[in-house]
Specification:
Elements: H1 2-9, H2 21-27, E1 31-34, H3 43-58, E2 64-69, H4 79-84, H5 86-93, E3 98-100, E4 103-109, E5 121-127, H6 129-137, E6 143-148, H7 155-161, H8 179-191, H9 201-216, H10 223-232, H11 237-251, H12 263-278
Parallel strand pairs: 1-6, 2-4, 2-5, 5-6
Antiparallel strand pairs: 3-4
Length: 279
């Protein structure tokens, strides 16, 4: 019933097939879309909902769609309520699902959205980095559409994934510019338990050692880039934050860590250098 409410508010052009979208979905496990809110009105939210409707019509696998917002208050007297309409907004606030052809849309808030929340598509409105970290920790969505309350609020998510922005060229963004640091991060990733939200004591020591070895050889990298890389390669957000903390501490050392003149540390570093050279 509510598909009528939504479609009446959006231009019919939103449902027309987009060139190449089906092909891109077949090649990419998760499609990530960033729609900046440049006017602080409801145009960005309308674009996000149009994008969701388009993808639902193109991909029948997107059955469980989630509208993820900070709190229920974000759907009361806001630009989001204006975009959806009063009737649809009240239905969502009452825990009802809106019908989208063979799919449905339900509401989740920061309090209810978890890493195991069932969802095939997530539209995050008034997004910040904490919300996007939660989405990244959830293995279910095939489509993620992000409308941040401020663009810089999801900078780390943007660095990690280089999401698509409609009507703009796709950015090729490599989070790590220092290839030796990247080789070290690959080595860390192969050793730690990616299934854990936080680093174990053994993993902590391994990560600390790696960053101290890098510092001993005057290798450094922007901590924000390190976090973005870790998230992209399967680290949980909390574990990535720990890695950032240890990198900052190691790279800030005024002098070379003396204990890393040992042969084993030198051998490890040489392996990273070789890995960096191979690309």
């Amino acid at each position: 019933m509510y598909i009528v409410i939504l479609t009446e508010k959006f231009e019919r052009a939103a449902f027309q097939p987009k060139q190449g979208s089906a092909e891109s979905m077949s090649k990419v496990t998760i499609k990530r879309v960033l729609i900046p809110d440049e006017t602080f009105e409801r145009s960005a939210i309308l674009k996000a909902l149009q994008e969701l409707l388009h993808e639902v019509l193109q991909d029948s696998a997107l059955r469980q769609c989630v509208l993820y917002i900070p709190t229920k208050g974000a759907l009361q007297g806001t630009t989001l309520e204006g975009a959806l309409g009063t009737k649809a907004s009240k239905a969502l606030l009452s825990n009802k699902r809106l019908s989208l052809e063979s799919s449905s849309l339900r509401l989740e808030t920061d309090a209810s959205f978890k890493g195991y929340t069932p969802c095939d598509a997530v539209v995050v409105i008034y997004a910040d980095q904490k919300m996007m970290d939660k989405v990244d920790s959830n293995p279910h969505p095939k489509l993620v559409i992000c409308v941040p309350h401020l663009l810089e609020a999801v900078d780390s998510w943007k660095r990690s994934w280089g999401p698509i922005t409609p009507n703009k060229p796709q950015e090729d963004f490599e989070p790590i510019g220092n290839k030796v640091v990247e080789a070290a991060l690959l080595s860390m990733t192969s050793r730690i338990n990616l299934g854990s939200q936080v680093l174990s004591s053994l993993d902590q020591e391994s990560v600390k050692d790696a960053f101290r070895i890098l510092r001993a050889h005057r290798q450094t990298e922007d901590p924000g880039n390190i976090r973005a890389w870790c998230i992209k390669h399967g680290w949980h957000a909390k574990a990535a934050d720990e890695a950032v903390k240890y990198s900052i501490k190691a790279f800030a050392l005024a002098s070379k860590p003396s204990q890393y003149g040992r042969h084993w540390a030198t051998d490890i570093y040489e392996q990273w250098v070789e890995g960096a050279a191979k690309g």
